[in-house]
Each structure stands twice: as C-alpha cells, then as structure tokens.
Amino acid sequence: SLGTSYYNIGEKEQGAQSTAKAYELRVRVSERERFYIESHYHAWVTGNLEKGRQGYELWAQTYPRDWVAHNNLGVTYFNFGQYDPALQEISAALQLNPGDRLVNANIVNAHLYLNHLEDAKAAARQAQAKGLDSPFLRTLLYQIAFLENDTGGMAKQVVWSAGKPDVEDVLLAQEADTAAYSGHLSKAREFSDQAAAAATQAHHKEAAAAYQAEAALREALFGNTAEARQRAVAALGLSSAREVMYGAALALAIAGDTSAVQVQVEKLADDLAKRFPEDTLVGFNYLPTLHAQLALNRKNAVDALKILQTASPCDLSTTATHFNFIGFYPVFVRGEAYLAAHRGSEAASEFQKIVDHRGIVANLPIGALAQLGLARAYALDKQTDKARSAYGNFLSLWHEADTDIPILKEAKAEFAKLQ
C-alpha cells in the first residue's frame, strides 16, 4: 500500500522499493493480497506489463467482486495504448465501487484518451456531485479546460491547487506545458521552475527531476540546445528513475549536436536496458525512440525507421501518472525520420496521428509541433495549398510566441518561401 501511495504521487522509484519489499514477503499473506503484490510488482518494479496484465486478469477472475483488479487492469491497458478495453475494465471497477475517488478519476481519464470529451466532462461532473473530488481529478479538469481553450477553467484548477502538496507542482507543470504549447517559452521556464520548487518543498525529488527533464525536452524540441543540455543534466543529478532518465536522454538526443552528447545518450540508453531488462515500455518505446533519434543525428533516416518498427505496438502508449514522457514520441520521431527520408506522405500520416489524438497528447509540445511537421510534409510532396494551411495553423497558434525561438524562425522562413 505504501508503494501504491508513492506511485500515485509520482514517486515511482520509492514506490518500486516498497513494492519490491512486499514481493519478498508475499509468502506470508493471503491469496488475494498475493495477487495484489505480484501484479503490482510486475507492473511497477520489473515493468513487465504482460505479466502484470496476466496477474490482474487472474485476480479479477478469482475475485470477480474485487474492484481493484479491474481498475488496475484498466490502467495497464493505458500503458499498452489499448483504450477501449481500459474503459471497459475501469467501468467494471466503478460498478463495484462507485464511491472510490481514483476510479472516478480514471473513468474521466479513459474518456479523454478516447477523445470522448463530453463523456469525460459528464463523468467529472458526476464525481464532483458525489463529493468525490481528488487531486488527480483536478489535473484532468485542467486538461479538459485546455482542450476547450477555456483559460478561466485552467486558472480555476491552478488556484485550487495552490499550497496543496502532491498537486500544486502538477498543476504548475501543466501550466508550463500550456504556455509552451503557444510558444510562450519564457513563461514555460518560469512555471517549470516553480513546479520543481514546489515538488522539492513537498520532498518529491523524483517529481522535481521529472519537471526539469520535461523542460529539457521542450527546449530541445524548440531548438535551444544549450538550455536543453543544462536542464537534462540537472534532472539526472536529482534522480535516476526510469522516466527521468528517458526524458533527459531524449532531450539530449534531440539536442545532440556534438559527439560527446551522442556518447552520453548511448550510455543512458545502455543503463536503462541493463537496469530494466524486462520493462515493456523501456524495450518497446523508450529505447527504440532514443536509438532512432541517434540514427537521425547521424543522417541515417533509413536506420531510424527500421529501429522504430519495434515501437509500433506501443505507439499509443501513455500513463495515468503526473508526468508523461511516453505519449506519441515514437510517432513524432518517426515523422521526423520520414521527413529526413523525403517521404512526405508517410511523414504527414505520422504527424496526423498526433493531431487526431488530442485527448492523449493534450498540451504536450509535440501537439503544436505536429502542425509544423504536417506543413513540412506537405511542402515536401509539393502540396502547396495544404502546406500553406498547415504553416498558417502553426503560426496562428504561435502568433504571440517568444520571437527568439529557433524553430519559430525556421517555420517563418519556410512559410515565406511558399508565398
């Protein structure tokens, strides 16, 4: 239970340590408790999602009235990127325990991931009407407000979170992503720093590191290589947790303009592979994305595309935790690889996946950059009208953006050539 509590506030490493200790002691507990321990162990410690799924399924079959098995099986389907069965399992959990706050929030999350915005809003209203508010629900209400361009709704959730440990940092990090989504990078930096400070104050070291890694990835995507490296190094200095290492490594890879950085990323990737040999997302999402980006840096788009074939089963994977380095980054890097290979129509298909899954991508920076990717793909295929429209969408979104962002300068120059 302590492991679960740590995991749910984003301290996954501490959660894994407690869960591993429980796993050592599992022979002393009841059958039901052993199901709980073993399934969580595979989901959170080894990262073997298939073993975790099998454990949750057997648990649900053995104890059909146990809502926890259905809820956690649903969350495991999130990790696989299988959102219809996820909704089905979480709905079963809700029927068994309609008064649980986390299950009510997970129903909202499942509807968001499926782009069922109205259903997500209705589920959120029902939860609050039943007095089942929660920090996780508030983060989802923020995402709903973002998807509806409701600045007042987003601000309401940030005000609610002020001074509340375990959630203030999460909403500040959301504000950082939202600011960056419109190109307000200086504001995004401020919010990321505030989020990291709030997490540190709440003694959430891993979360603080994750916010630095997220900020590093954002800087790298926007073309600020020095700032990206600085924040990635800061993140790695705070934590060696899976998501932190991956986020920092991906930032370094995208910003990898020197051979020394390339070597550093390769070492981080090797470390992830050695420490988490069974981890499904490490093997089928994180490592292929990192190695593909390194291949792109070496101007080898063909190798990058071959490497990313491994990631195809996990293209749509995501998590239901506070920070998310998973959602659609293999898709984004594949789109970039197709651009580098001068295969415009295939690149457009990848970037369109990102545009079409707003409920998953939400305010991640690649949601905005996918419009630019589409523009470049159409231009490559000489579809000038479509290219102009996509460039216009991106530049309209960034019409008040910070003017010194390298990728914005590139976009403006490319658009000018089409006129």
Written overview of the protein:
This protein has 419 residues and is mainly α. 76% of the residues lie in helices and 0% in strands. It is built from 24 helices and no strands. The longest helix is centred in the middle third of the chain and has 18 residues, at 205-222.
Rg: 21 Å
Overall helicity: over 70%
Oligomer: single chain
Provide the β-strand percentage band: under 5%
Number of helices: 24
Mean pLDDT: 94
Which structural class do you get from the secondary structure elements? mainly alpha
Distance between the termini: 61 Å
Largest sheet: none
Total strands: the figure is: 0
List SSEs in N-to-C order. HHHHHHHHHHHHHHHHHHHHHHHH
Residue stretches low in confidence (pLDDT < 50, at least 5 long) are: none
Outline type = globular
Outline of the structure:
The protein is mainly alpha-helical and 419 residues long. Helices cover 76% and strands 0% of the residues.
Kindly list the characteristics that best describe this protein.
419 residues
How does the SSE layout of this entry go?
Elements: H1 2-8, H2 12-24, H3 31-46, H4 49-62, H5 67-80, H6 83-96, H7 101-113, H8 117-129, H9 135-147, H10 151-161, H11 168-181, H12 185-201, H13 205-222, H14 225-238, H15 242-254, H16 259-275, H17 280-297, H18 301-308, H19 329-340, H20 344-356, H21 358-361, H22 365-380, H23 384-397, H24 406-418
Helix pairs in contact: 1-2, 2-3, 3-4, 4-5, 5-6, 6-7, 7-8, 7-9, 8-9, 9-10, 9-11, 10-11, 11-12, 11-13, 11-22, 12-13, 13-14, 13-15, 14-15, 15-16, 15-17, 16-17, 17-18, 17-19, 18-19, 19-20, 19-22, 20-22, 22-23, 23-24
